[in-house]
């Protein structure tokens, strides 16, 4: 079955941004005819968000290179979703116009916990039963998830068949080949899939609880292990990518400079779950950038990674790109540490506002979180930026960090004052604009802070008031994250399988697009937890170091003892040096070339 866009003309004429749903992008994905396996890469957020995601394009490319069909689907805004549901039109993929329920596998890229209800929303619009048990025996696609949230997949465990953990492009097409070999989603298929590195089959894992409701053990024959690609130069990368029909969140070409981070900030999940650092060569990156610019017509290339300033050959890369790309193409460096700020690069980049993330106001608290930067480095980076023409600075901080005091929060004012003073020491054409954004700290799995409590509402409100009073300054704007949103993210991030009932109930009560402030239905979520007899505070509390955590059965390659050591070093305000300075013994033996084992 193929959906005819002409049949949707009436609906498309009445919805916001109809180009989200028509497909036909310049350079749209092309699949072989009569392919043996059909894969749909689903992104549980809006088209313009998903089309900016490089990961989904890499995964789709990995299927295409094996001779399989691949296509995209994005969560439709509710105006379109409601309209096709009323018209009994199933949700479809963009290029093939194929109903999702006719694919062999649907893989969701889950970047953010607040997208969980959108996964159910997508399945519902596709006419696919939400729970795995309700799909058993029926002719439905395999439902899989991957992405950063897959490191704790348990809140979604009862909805999905497969979980891809780690570098998904290394295992996904292998699963497709196994599916064809086994003749579909048979018991043999699931048993053999569970043995593939980077694949977790929730149906083959049982969770045991004690009388107090705490996890007391796991029962399963397989230990899911993260898949890690060692050679990024040889890894899949789509040389041509579709150009969105409407402006996307990041409307530019994107290349991945490196994967992983040297630093080890104790709050940062990405810094641990993407270890070790793997780099692409200057030659490969230059070839990829030139290919993308030629195939898309973009005039900007973004050099993406967790900390691109740490790329050891950054200056050489910039020279190579400037020499090779057409005149007028600019470079963007979205991920920038204060201590790796490169004014030569910034001079060539577009003069947009500059973003730094000190994360904490005081040196003591920066040492606690292992954000190894000093006040002088922050100030020097700002002065360098001002000298080459920048007149706007964004500063990112967190509140509610472990051991945080009011003095730590007041220290944010000192950083702002120093930056303003540095700008005022020379005559400037424009007035300085400083934006201070403060998010609430959320403990995440596979970090040294995975055991910490998350601040309650009264604590957060008091801290926000202190900051508001402290930063009431001309030329400075202050914003912070919504408490309920942060709390919900924290609940889902460290949740277990029992949360699946609340997610399903919240969806039934109308929750969709929970990551969008205007669409988050706080009352429905509160009712969902109450209806399911779940106390959210169970998931935001401090965890005991001996407690079994919902994600403990997953082998991410990092030893749990390392996280415990780092937690204790945090409470001593002791900094652990970056991987560049020496191995800290996180446990990635056999994967990281510099690893010395778990110390």
UniProtKB/TrEMBL annotation:
SUPFAM superfamilies: Radical SAM enzymes. Gene3D superfamilies: tm_1862 like domain. It comes from the Bacteria. SMART domains: Elp3. CDD domains: B12-binding_like, Radical_SAM. One of its GO terms (molecular function) is catalytic activity. Residues 247-477 form the Radical SAM core domain. InterPro entries: CHP03960_rSAM, Elp3/MiaA/NifB-like_rSAM, Radical_SAM_N2, rSAM, rSAM_horseshoe, rSAM_sf. It holds the Pfam family Radical_SAM. This is TIGR03960 family B12-binding radical SAM protein. The lineage of its organism: Bacteria, Bacillati, Bacillota, Clostridia, Eubacteriales.
């Amino acid at each position: 079955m193929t959906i005819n866009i002409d049949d949707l003309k009436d609906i498309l004429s009445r919805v916001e941004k109809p180009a989200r749903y028509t497909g036909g992008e310049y350079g749209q994905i092309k699949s072989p005819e009569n392919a043996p396996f059909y894969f749909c890469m689903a992104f549980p957020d809006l088209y313009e968000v998903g089309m900016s995601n490089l990961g989904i394009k890499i995964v789709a490319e990995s299927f295409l290179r094996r001779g399989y069909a691949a296509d995209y689907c994005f969560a439709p805004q509710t105006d379109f979703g409601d309209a096709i549901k009323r018209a009994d039109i199933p949700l479809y993929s963009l290029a093939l116009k194929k109903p999702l329920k006719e694919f062999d596998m649907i893989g969701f890229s889950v970047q953010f916990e607040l997208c969980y209800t959108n996964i159910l929303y997508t399945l519902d619009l596709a006419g696919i039963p939400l729970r795995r048990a309700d799909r058993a025996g029926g002719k439905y696609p395999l439902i899989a998830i991957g992405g950063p949230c897959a490191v704790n997949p348990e809140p979604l465990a009862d909805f999905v068949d497969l979980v891809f953990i780690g570098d998904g492009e290394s295992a996904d097409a292998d699963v497709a080949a196994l599916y064809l070999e086994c003749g579909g989603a048979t018991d043999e298929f699931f048993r053999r899939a569970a043995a593939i590195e980077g694949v977790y089959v929730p149906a083959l894992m049982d969770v045991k609880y004690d009388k107090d409701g705490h996890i007391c053990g796991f029962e399963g024959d397989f230990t899911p292990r993260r898949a890690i690609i060692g050679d990024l130069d040889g890894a899949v990368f789509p040389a041509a990518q579709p150009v969105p029909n409407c402006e996307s969140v990041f409307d530019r070409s994107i290349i991945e400079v490196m994967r992983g981070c040297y630093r080890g900030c104790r709050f940062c999940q990405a810094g641990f779950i993407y270890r070790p650092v793997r780099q692409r060569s200057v030659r490969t990156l230059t070839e990829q950038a030139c290919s993308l610019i030629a195939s898309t017509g973009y005039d900007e290339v973004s050099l993406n990674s967790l900390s691109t300033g740490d790329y050891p050959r950054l200056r050489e890369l910039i020279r190579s790109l400037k020499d090779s790309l057409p005149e007028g193409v600019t470079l963007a460096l979205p991920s920038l540490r204060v201590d790796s700020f490169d004014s030569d690069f910034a001079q060539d980049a577009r003069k947009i506002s500059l973003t730094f993330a000190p994360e904490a106001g005081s040196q003591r608290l920066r040492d606690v979180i292992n954000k190894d930067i000093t006040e002088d480095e922050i100030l020097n980076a700002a002065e360098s930026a001002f000298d080459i023409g920048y007149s706007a600075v964004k500063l990112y901080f967190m509140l509610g960090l472990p051991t945080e005091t009011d003095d730590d929060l007041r220290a944010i004012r000192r950083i702002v004052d120093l930056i303003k003073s540095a700008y005022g020491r020379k005559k400037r054409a424009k007035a300085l604009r400083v934006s201070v954004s403060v998010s609430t700290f959320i403990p995440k799995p596979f970090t040294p802070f995975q055991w910490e409590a998350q601040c309650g509402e009264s604590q957060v409100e008091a801290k926000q008031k202190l900051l508001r009073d402290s930063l009431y300054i001309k030329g400075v704007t202050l914003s912070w994250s919504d408490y309920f949103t942060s709390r919900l993210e924290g609940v889902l991030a460290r949740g277990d399988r029992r949360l699946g009932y609340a997610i399903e109930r919240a969806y039934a009560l109308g929750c969709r697009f929970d990551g969008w402030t205007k669409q988050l239905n706080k009352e429905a979520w509160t009712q969902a937890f109450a209806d399911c007899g779940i106390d959210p505070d169970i998931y935001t509390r401090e965890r005991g170091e001996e407690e079994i955590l919902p994600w403990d059965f997953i082998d991410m390659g990092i030893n749990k003892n390392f996280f415990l050591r780092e937690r204790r070093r945090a409470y001593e305000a002791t900094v652990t040096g970056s991987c560049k300075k020496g191995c800290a013994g996180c446990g990635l033996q056999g994967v990281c070339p510099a690893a010395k084992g778990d110390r």
